[in-house]
Amino acid sequence: MITVQAPDGAPEVGPGDDLAALVADLFDLADGDVVTVTSKVVSKAEGRVRPGTRDDALPDETRRVVARRGPTTIVRTSHGLTLAAAGIDASNVAPGTVVLLPEDPDASARAIRESLLARTGRNVGVLVTDTAGRAWREGQVDIAIGAAGLRVIVDLAGSVDAHGNELAVTAPAVADELAGAAELAQGKLTARPFALVRGRDDLVLPAGEHGPGAAALVRPDGADLFGYGAREAVVRALRGGEQDRAAFGAPAEPDELVEAIREVLPGATVEAAAGSVVVAGGDVRTLSGLAFAFGWRPVDAVDDAPGGDGLRFRPATP
Amino acid sequence: MITVQAPDGAPEVGPGDDLAALVADLFDLADGDVVTVTSKVVSKAEGRVRPGTRDDALPDETRRVVARRGPTTIVRTSHGLTLAAAGIDASNVAPGTVVLLPEDPDASARAIRESLLARTGRNVGVLVTDTAGRAWREGQVDIAIGAAGLRVIVDLAGSVDAHGNELAVTAPAVADELAGAAELAQGKLTARPFALVRGRDDLVLPAGEHGPGAAALVRPDGADLFGYGAREAVVRALRGGEQDRAAFGAPAEPDELVEAIREVLPGATVEAAAGSVVVAGGDVRTLSGLAFAFGWRPVDAVDDAPGGDGLRFRPATP
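^ Those are the sequences you sent over. The predicted structure of the assembly is below.
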C-alpha cells in the first residue's frame, strides 16, 4: 500500500525560509518516507524570483533552443531539462514577477534531506518536483528535477520475469512517478507545496548516501533522438555550424548515412569504405545537410569514385 | 490522502478471461475509486498474443516510423501513441510469443467499467496502463492508454491562483499520473496487473458517462513539434513526398518560413506578400527542403522578384 498526503496550511514561502522546518511541522515523518517539495517553493526560499515576464527571463535560463512554434519556445536548460519557457513560472507568485528554477535542484534536495535528518532523526528521501509537458502527449505531469537519498531509476536490465524472459530495457523512472503521485494529492490551485509518499522505503538510500540525484534522469544532450524539433532539425542541418552539431548525437554508422543518402538522392552513387562514405552525384548542399544530421562532414573531393567525381565524408568526431 | 494498492495473487490471464471478475474479487470497491489494469493483461484477455519476435510483429503495429537509431525503432501506432517497438512486449509472456497492445484500449476500459458496475454496483473509473519511454528523460513511466469514466486531463486554463494570476496553460494529465502511481505499487517483476487508487473521486464521472478516454491524451499527429526524430526530419524534408508532410504540422506563418530561409541562406532575397513567399537566390533543393518542413511548397517561378529571378512558395494546405 502506498499513501500520498499533501496537507493544506503551508505558509507562503519567502527568501531564506527553512523548508525542512516547514516539512517537519507538517508531517510526522518515518524512516523510508519520501518527501516532495515543489520547485517553486524551493526557488522562493532560495531567492530565485525576479521582476519581469517569462520572456524577459528566458534568454538567461536557456542553454539552447530545442523548438519554437508560435508563442511556444521549448529549450534545454542549464540543468539539461527540456522544458517550455525553461520552466520559468508566472503562477503562484506576486504579479509582475517570475520564478526561475532552482540553480541546483539536487543540491537543494540534499540540503533539505540533511536538515530533516538533523531535525527529526528520520532518514527520508527528498524530491524537488516541477511540472513538464511531454513531446507527444497533451497536458503536463510533475517530474523530479532534484533528488536526494533516493534510487531515481530502478534498473531491471538483466532481471527475469516469472516466465524466465529477461526484462532487457525496463527501468522504471520511479522518482518521476513519485512526483506525479504527489501532484495528484497537491493540485495546482491550493497551497500544498509539500507532499509525503509512504510505502516505497525500498527506494530510500541509507542516511548520508544521497545517490545520483535527478540529474541521472536527464538523457545527455545528443543521446536522445529529439534534440531538435522536426522543423528546427531541418534548419540546423541545412545551415550547418559546429555549435549545432552536438544535439544530433554521435556520428551514425556508415550504413545509416548510406541508407539516408540513397533515400534522398536515389540517383547518386554511394559507397562506404574504410570509415568513409564516398558519394558521386547529388548536390553538395543536400549531401552536406544530410551528413551534418548524421554527425558526418565532407572532407575531400575524389576523382575515382565509382559514379564519377565524388565527395568523401567522414565522421565529425572532434 | 491518496492510497494505492496492488495486491499479489492475481492469476495468470488468458484469452476470454473476465478481468472485471478478477478485479471485483481482489478489491472491495467504493464509488469514486480508480481501477488500473495493465495493457498486458487486457491484451492477454483479448487474445492479442502472437508467436514470433517484436521485430516480426512491428510492421503491422506501425502507422509510421518516427525515429530509428541502432536497435531502437520509435513508431506512432494506430492509437496515435509514440512508443518504442509500438509497445509490443516480450516480457511476462510465454517465451517465443509477444503481446500486442489492445486494439482499442478505451473500449477495453469501458467494457471493464460497465462490467464492474453491473457486478458490484460501484461507479469507478478504469484505466488501461502501459509503459512508455520519454523523449528527453531516462527510464520509463506508466501512462494511461485507455480510460473510462474519468477526467483524464484537468484543464485549469482560465483558473486563477491565490495571487490572482491566470493559470494559462496548466492542464495536469491526471490519468498519466494515476497510471504512474499504480506502477509504484505494482512493480514490474511480480504478478500485480491490477491496482486501485482511492482519493480522487472528483475525477470519476457519473455512471454511464465514460468521458473522452485516453485518446484525449494523444497529441494529434502534426500538432506536436517532434513528429520526427531530428535525423529523420532532415531525411524526410530533403526527400519530400506528400505522405511525410503531415507530421511536420500545419503550414507555418509566412514570417517563420522567411526567418528560416534567411538563417540558412543569408545571401538570398526573401519577401513575404499576399500569402506567398518569394525567394531569389539560394538553390532550389535547399529551399524546397526548408519549405517542406514548414508546410509550404514551391508553386511557380517569378521573373520580377526584388533579387532577380525567383521562386514563389505557398502554404501546402490541401
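Chain A touches chain B through 96 residues (CB under 8 Å). The helical segments of chain A are 19-26, 39-45, 54-61, 105-120, 174-186, 230-239, 254-264, 284-293.

Shout if you want it in another format.
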